[in-house]
Specification:
Number of helices: 13
Structural class: alpha/beta
Radius of gyration: 21 Å
Number of strands: 9
CATH class: Alpha Beta
Helix content: 40-55%
Strand content: 15-25%
Number of domains: 1
CATH topology: Rossmann fold
Length: 324
């Protein structure tokens, strides 16, 4: 059966409710409309919600910013501040928290380089706390950061590297940043998802590894992800839907051709997709041609948000001076 690839909770909800006016059982949803962005809070409450959404119980916060593809400095600052608020809220207490920031992904592949680029721009301070034997500070938090790479570069499972670092450095919180996959090209580089359920490295390219979550690492894990790719088969499927909708509008109601279009199932559409793609590019993903610039802008937004959220004495003026 055809399964649309997406890492976004808002899209899993949309897929469940597609064509029907109903909410997902076991799921609570709240939507906030702001001037330049929309915040959707999806809370999976129980096993029923897990089954319907295909995601673990927890909170998923999505910030959709249509203009984030071409942001001005004011918009980047506004989203960084909002992201910082959401991180503080979902982490509950960051003032005296020792935090490990993990930038997942392959720095040699631009659509997968979001995590490593964020790590380059976060303000790390753990070495000062260790050197001066300090437990806390009024202005700065104890923050460390790591870009573990991918198994193809290291030969080591990413989760094993992170677990070893966690066991050695004993952070109170892990924040993982990764590139995700969307089912909708309009959400590429315009949507930020924050979750308290952890993350599966490599999920954006359909190559899931050991999950990074509280059960595996032994500490709370917050994930921050931005979709940077769309599965080619998903794009073809959506295109076929649009073609069918257009043809149905032109077809005479009640005709055999109209009935054929109406009765075309997802499985039949998927067989058409496979027939076209399988010989040439069965596992192709698509990303925008300007992805280099997009990743740079997004890494600044996320790094600014993290620095403001984690360090009590850091504000927007400070992070804009620090980040280059």
């Amino acid at each position: 059966m055809f399964q649309v690839r997406t890492d976004l909770a808002v899209e899993a909800r949309e897929l469940y409710s597609e064509g029907e006016n109903r909410e997902v059982p076991g799921v609570e949803v709240k939507i906030e409309e702001e001037k330049y962005y929309t915040i959707t809070r999806v809370k999976i409450l129980d096993k029923i919600g897990e089954k319907n959404m295909g995601k673990p119980t927890g909170t998923y916060i999505t910030i959709e910013v249509p203009n984030l593809k071409n942001p001005n400095e004011d918009l980047k600052d506004e989203i960084s501040i909002q992201l910082a608020k959401e991180i503080k809220a979902i982490a509950k207490n960051t003032k005296k928290t020792k935090t490990l920031i993990v930038g997942l992904g392959n720095w040699n592949v631009t659509p997968d380089a979001l995590g490593p680029k964020v790590v380059k721009r976060v303000l790390v301070t753990r070495h000062f706390f260790v050197s001066y034997k300090k437990e806390d500070d009024e202005e700065m938090a104890n923050v460390s950061a790591l870009s573990p790479g991918v198994m193809g570069l290291t030969g080591i499972e990413t989760g094993e590297i992170i677990k070893g670092v966690v066991e050695k450095t004993n952070p109170d919180l892990v924040i993982a940043i990764d590139a995700l996959a969307s089912r909708n090209m309009n959400r590429i580089s315009t949507t930020i998802q924050i979750s308290d359920t952890g993350i599966n490295p490599g999920s954006g390219v359909g190559n899931k590894r050991q999950g990074l979550n509280s059960e595996y690492l032994g500490v709370p894990v917050i994930s921050i992800g931005i979709p940077t790719v769309v599965d080619a088969a998903t794009m073809v499927n959506d295109t076929i839907d649009l073609i069918i909708d257009s043809m149905m509008k032109e077809a005479k109601f009640g005709s055999e051709f109209y009935e054929m279009l109406v009765e075309l199932s997802k499985e039949e559409k998927y067989s058409l997709i496979r027939e076209v793609l399988e010989p040439f590019m069965p596992n192709t993903i698509v990303t925008p041609k300007e992805i280099d610039e997009l990743i740079d802008n997004l890494s600044i937004v996320i790094a600014n948000g993290l620095n403001i959220a984690l360090h009590p004495g850091i504000d927007l003026k400070d992070v804009n001076r620090y980040i280059k």
